[in-house]
Design goal:
The protein is mainly alpha-helical. Helix content is about 80%, strand content about 0%.
Length: about 170
């Protein structure tokens, strides 16, 4: 019975990331409660898997890197643009992700998430230019960052936990 708990935590985390993405797209906010739940699921996952993938130090370093790097980016972007450019919810999301992914996985999540956000932004700008019959531009384009980071977190999590997920699926089907 206990061996199914980590799989349920992964499924719950994916559900939380989907919910966070939908809320961010609709309301431009990433609720603290959902970010906290994501982080708690990560701690529980590693506890139930006996820290097989990320140890406690890795979890803490990942959370510090995720939240810290996003906070630094937020600080400088806000100063440059003179407005909120990246919300604190995004900072907390990457902190929670760091508890799941550790140091290397958090760097991967940020990289893949930034790429997903870039693709989202370019497609959205293209759609706006077609809809409004205006020239294509990304100047001062504003999109929520959470969905891109959620995609990055899922990709990095899939890389980190690929062997575990494959093993569990094999055991369930056998």
């Amino acid at each position: 019975m206990l061996e199914i708990l980590p799989l349920l935590l992964i499924i719950n985390a994916i559900g939380l990331l989907i919910a966070l993405s939908i809320i961010d797209l609709k309301h431009w906010i990433l609720p603290d409660e959902l970010n906290a739940a994501l982080g708690i699921c990560g701690i529980a996952f590693h506890l139930f898997t006996a820290y097989r993938f990320v140890d406690v130090a890795g979890m803490l370093w990942g959370a510090a890197l995720g939240a810290g790097l996003l906070y630094v980016i937020r600080f400088f972007a806000n100063r440059h643009y003179g407005q909120d450019s990246l919300g604190l919810g995004d900072v907390k999301l990457l902190g929670a992700a760091g508890l799941w992914l550790g140091l290397d996985g958090t760097l991967q999540a940020i990289t893949f998430g930034a790429l997903a956000g870039l693709i989202h932004g370019v497609l959205y700008a293209f759609w706006l230019s077609r809809k409004n019959k205006t020239a294509f531009t990304v100047h001062r384009l504003s999109i929520p960052a959470g969905p891109g980071f959620a995609i990055g977190i899922v990709i990095a999590g899939g890389i980190l936990l690929h062997s575990y997920i494959t093993e569990i699926i094999h055991d369930l089907l056998a």
